[in-house]
Automatic annotation (TrEMBL):
Membrane among keywords: yes
UniProt family annotation: Belongs to the UPF0060 family.
Membrane-spanning parts: 7-28, 34-53, 65-85, 91-110
GO cellular component entries: plasma membrane
Protein name per UniProt: YnfA family protein
UniProt key word Metal-binding: no
SUPFAM superfamilies reported in the protein's UniProt record: Multidrug resistance efflux transporter EmrE
Length: 116
């Protein structure tokens, strides 16, 4: 359940943060109505609460791992929503970022390894 919870929370956090930032971008750079920005700010705030629900109590560790999810999620958002075409370097960078996230989240912590 913990792995599923971590994954679901990361996906929800990414959707809130990327979606919120995209809405603000639309209002500021694409001349969409300013309520887009307001909704974006609400989603960005929701991201902070969603991230705080992760089972790991270490803020820096959770946010560092989330960085990889954010990178891959941002590229996916660009493809799905904006019609962006990633380069092979985008894919390689996203894969490296996701590998880093997996290492951070999957590695044993001091509390889960025997003490010398």
């Amino acid at each position: 359940m913990t792995v599923a919870r971590i994954a679901i929370l990361f996906v929800l956090a990414a959707a809130a943060e990327i979606g919120g930032a995209w809405l603000v971008w639309q209002a500021v750079r694409e001349s969409k109505p300013w309520w887009f920005a307001g909704l974006g700010v609400v989603l960005l705030g929701a991201y902070g609460f969603i991230a705080a629900l992760q089972p790991d109590a270490n803020f820096g560790r959770v946010l560092a791992a989330y960085g990889g999810i954010f990178i891959a999620g941002s590229l996916a958002w660009g493809v799905i929503v904006d019609g962006f075409t990633p380069t092979r370097w985008d894919y390689i960078g996203a894969a490296v970022a996701l590998l880093g996230a997996a290492i951070i989240i999957g590695a044993p912590t001091a509390s889960s390894t025997p003490q010398d």
